[in-house]
Design a protein that fits this description.
The complex is a heterodimer of chains A (412) and B (418).
Chain A (H helix, E strand, L loop, with lengths): L4 E4 L5 E6 L5 E8 L13 H8 L11 H6 L3 E6 L4 E8 L3 H13 L5 H20 L6 H9 L14 H5 L3 H11 L5 E7 L3 H12 L22 E7 L5 E8 L6 H13 L5 H9 L3 E8 L6 E9 L5 H17 L4 H18 L3 H13 L9 H6 L3 H11 L5 E8 L2
Parallel strand pairs in A: 2-6, 7-11
Antiparallel strand pairs in A: 1-2, 3-5, 3-6, 4-5, 8-10, 8-11, 9-10
Helix pairs in contact in A: 3-8, 9-15, 10-11, 11-15
Chain B lengths: L20 E4 L5 E5 L6 E8 L11 H7 L10 H10 L3 E6 L4 E8 L3 H14 L4 H19 L2 H14 L11 H6 L2 H11 L5 E5 L4 H10 L20 E5 L6 E10 L7 H12 L5 H9 L3 E10 L4 E10 L3 H17 L4 H18 L3 H13 L6 H11 L2 H11 L6 E5 L1
Parallel strand pairs in B: 2-6, 7-11
Antiparallel strand pairs in B: 1-2, 3-5, 3-6, 4-5, 8-10, 8-11, 9-10
The chains are: A alpha+beta (412), B alpha+beta (418).
């Protein structure tokens, strides 16, 4: 059980405190309610580029990293389609340094042209390193626009194309900051061996005077229900043919998420999973298989993928994969198999909650997705999944009209 | 309130280490047990002197450890993994050039059942042909995926150049090696290495009866004979270029053989390395990423194995700026050799490193890694407090001397790929 206390400053900034008396380290985490979904379709990749700029100095502090390192701290951040999250880890006695740094960049960035110019290049190198210069690196760049036609989930966090990043201007940076980086659009989470009064005092002192600015009201186009099978085949310089099938499912906040997550475990988690057993061991058609859910905040996906062995036809491989998917919708799941995936989830949850940073980040994510009061209910929600709900989910989800298939063929 | 003035701060306190208790099981097997864990998590790591340096044929060591749970004619790999999974367990291969083995993860309530499955599988493993064929298919696919990455091509050539291709540490597998591997190779290696006493690291709040179970299990082992092993290295110097057509980025690795952790220069060289490329604010990151935008990331590090240590710089940069990036790496070497590090920078890096010690020791699993470092490198229990003292006392002059002694371009192998 993760305990926490919460309060809100007058400017609308939500603050949550999680006490941990066992560690000499503290975590200060600021999550902003902005992700790649909030971008202009002609200026994609911007939320992530902006995250880089957040380290390029703020109104009163020319360099973010150096003072934190001086206080023995370390920081990082990540952006996804839904949110942007920043965190600092430092010895608890120096926690005020993190309040000072985080509050100043929420107050206002320095907006230096040099920072924009350099970070554009850094992000372009990141684009190449992670998406273009790796085998299968561009899978999600291809898959997203196949699955989504309306919703901004149709582009990847890194952006649609390099030119969008090249063309980002200082005007874009400024308007993005004032639109999204306001106190009501953020949550501050503090973890460590502190008392609530101290956290209140520091939060008020450093964040209290930041103008509230405007709360961003999101209204994004809704992705209509998919009604036809979609498929795309691409040729790439890769070592093996590969297949990815994406199925639409409910968003992260829906109870269906838990069923979908366990279904993905039954299919693809570990060596006793169905894909591993049938497709690798028994039928010897694949050398790699996986299944997972994306947990998008506005719309979810369950993904299945595999790398084909040499000499196996794409058609046969696809049929074999579908047999496993449809079996789950037709036949009852043995009770032992359901218990197995629940037990595996339980173990991984205990391990994942061991580091303070993970607990703090979870609180932040659950707050922004409006599920904070259910933070400690995850285990019982997974426990509530039954073999009936697995069967229902599978027969509804794993149909061709709900699928988007990407085939990657070895370039001859 | 004046926001331009930083709040006051103090240096991180000394590191409070919680070391595991040593329990001698039977036949010379040592168990190191850290039981002060605030939750139900348990990690059991079993390690043998069975790393790749002991193999006479490529891939044998890694496939032996990878296939410890592959079963036999009478007990299938499928049944073994199903049972471990049913108890919510995770099994993970542990493998490097010196050691090999397995880690089992689970909750305290299930760890005994998970271990029983492992115990049964370990007792009868025969590395069946069909299982080996499957693992070869899986691994060969991964190997081919890796072989298309400039980073991997660069690392492989670096390993050969650093240790010498004909040394045990310098071995790099090729596709042909996958075809030559046979079940008998693994069984022989298993009989040769895994019948001797392992060392066990246990992190978790388990009942004493589990310790009794481990004790009973160790009756099967022969007492360890200190492996007689030595190797001489022959490092390449200068440029090695691996071409890769159409690559958008080039991977760069520059480095040299160094000393081990018991060398008098080790602590302060680590400080010098941190300044050069060991953290986000390092000289290399500042110059090559934050000033020039050549790369998403660049870093340097020092790695120490049982028989030798090495220093390296590693990055991936836009292909058109490869030569510029290399020039800048050596420019940063020269600055450290010719200019004293400023007091501001030195105190920043010292403080950062002291904070980093705390982060590395945070939580029981991290604490066990700290202990394993001491154990495997045969370091004194005062290693960390000595390290911290050395960092506190280091001066800019000492670091300049070290830079001149070790950051010598002529002593480096420089590998590029793409």
């Amino acid at each position: 059980m993760i305990a926490f206390e919460q309060f809100t400053l007058d400017n609308g900034l939500k603050v949550i405190f999680h006490q941990d008396k066992t560690t000499p380290m503290a975590v200060v985490n600021v999550i902003y309610d902005v992700g790649a979904r909030d971008e202009n379709e002609n200026k994609t990749g911007f939320a992530h580029l902006f995250e880089h700029l957040m380290f390029g100095g703020s109104k009163n502090i020319p360099n973010f990293d150096a003072p934190l390192q001086l206080a023995g701290g370390e920081c990082n951040a990540f952006t996804n389609n839904d949110i942007t999250n920043y965190y600092d880890q430092l010895p608890v006695q120096n926690i005020e340094t993190a309040f000072w740094l985080e509050s100043d960049r929420m107050l206002e960035l320095a907006f230096t042209p040099k920072s924009l110019e350099v970070q554009r290049n850094v992000v372009i190198e990141e684009f190449k390193q992670r998406y273009l210069n790796q085998p299968y690196g561009d899978v999600w760049l291809e898959l997203r626009p196949l699955i989504y036609k309306e919703h901004p989930y149709k582009w990847a966090t890194i952006g649609k194309e390099i030119s969008h990043i090249e063309n980002a201007t200082m005007e874009d940076v400024k308007s993005f900051f004032y639109k999204h980086y306001a106190p009501p659009n953020a949550t501050l989470v503090v973890g460590g061996n502190l008392e609530l009064d101290r956290v209140k005092e520091l939060a008020e002192k450093w964040f209290g005077s930041i103008p509230s600015r405007e709360k961003y009201d999101r209204s994004l186009p809704v992705e209509p229900e998919q009604k036809e099978r979609r498929e795309k085949t691409i040729e790439r310089d890769v070592p093996a043919n590969a297949i990815y099938i994406a199925f639409r499912m409910a968003e992260r906040t829906d109870n269906e998420f838990y069923t979908g997550d366990l279904v993905s475990d039954i299919l693809g988690r570990g060596k006793s999973s169905r894909f591993y057993e049938k497709l690798i061991t028994e039928k010897k058609m694949f050398s790699q298989v996986a299944s997972y859910v994306t947990g998008g905040w506005e719309d979810g996906l369950i993904i299945v993928m595999g790398h084909l062995l040499e000499g196996i036809s794409m058609e046969d491989a696809e049929i074999a994969m579908w047999e496993e998917l449809q079996d789950l919708g037709k036949n009852d799941l043995p009770e032992r198999e359901l218990t197995k995936v629940k037990n595996k989830f339980k173990t991984s949850k205990v391990f994942s909650e061991q580091p303070l940073l993970n607990r703090v980040m979870n609180i932040a994510l659950f707050d922004r997705i409006q599920m904070l009061d259910e933070l400690n209910d995850e285990l019982s929600k997974y426990d509530a999944v039954t073999s009936t709900s697995i069967k229902e989910f599978s027969s509804k989800t794993f149909v061709h009209e709900n699928s988007s298939t990407l085939k990657i063929l070895v370039k001859k | 309130m004046n926001r331009t003035v930083a709040p006051s701060y103090s240096q991180a306190q000394d590191l409070k280490l919680v070391l595991p208790e040593k329990i001698m099981l039977n036949h010379g097997v040592a168990l190191y047990w850290l039981k002060d864990v605030p939750d139900a998590s348990v990690k059991l790591e079993i390690s043998w002197d069975a790393g790749s340096k002991y193999q006479d044929k490529h891939l044998v060591a890694s496939f032996t450890s990878k296939m410890l749970l592959s079963g036999s004619e009478n007990l299938s790999a499928k049944a073994i993994s199903e049972e471990i999974d049913f108890y919510g367990g995770y099994a993970q291969q542990e493998m490097d050039k010196d050691h090999a083995g397995i880690s089992l993860y689970g909750l305290a309530e299930n760890i005994e059942a998970i271990f029983e499955v492992f115990e049964k599988a370990f007792a009868l493993v025969s590395f069946p042909d069909s299982e080996l064929q499957k693992e070869l298919d899986i691994s060969l696919n991964k190997f081919r995926v890796e072989s298309q990455k400039v980073k991997t091509l660069c690392r492989r050539a670096f390993v050969k150049g650093l240790y010498g291709e004909n040394t045990k540490y310098g071995q790099v597998a090729s596709e042909e090696d996958f075809k030559k591997l046979q079940s008998a190779d693994l069984l022989n290696y298993f009989n040769d290495k895994y019948k001797f006493a392992p060392v066990i690291f246990l992190t978790g709040n388990v009942p004493d009866q589990f310790i009794d179970k481990l004790r009973l299990w160790t009756n099967h082992f022969k007492p360890i004979e200190q492996p007689h092993f030595s190797q001489d290295f022959s490092q390449t110097k200068g440029r090695v270029e691996i071409p890769k057509e159409g690559a958008l980025q080039s991977a760069i690795r520059i480095g040299r053989l160094m000393f081990k952790k018991d060398h008098p220069d080790y602590y302060k060289f680590q400080l010098l390395n941190t300044i050069l490329g060991g953290y986000f604010g390092s000289r290399l990151m500042t110059n090559i990423r934050e000033e020039k935008g050549y790369t998403y990331g660049i870093g340097s590090g020092m790695a120490v194995l049982q028989d030798v240590g090495y220093f390296f710089v590693s990055t991936e940069v836009g292909s058109s700026v490869k030569e510029d990036a290399i020039k800048e790496v050596f420019h940063e070497f020269d600055r450290l050799k010719n200019e004293l590090i400023s007091a501001d920078e030195l105190v920043k890096v010292k403080n950062y490193m002291l904070g980093e010690f705390l982060r590395q020791a945070d939580g029981p699993l991290h604490m066990m890694e700290i202990f394993k470092n001491i154990y495997f490198n045969r370091l004194p229990p005062t290693y960390y407090s000595d390290f911290i003292k050395a960092i506190h006392s280091a001066t800019a002059e000492e670091l300049m001397t070290l830079a001149n002694k070790y950051l010598v371009r002529d002593a480096m192998v420089e590998v590029t790929a793409g």
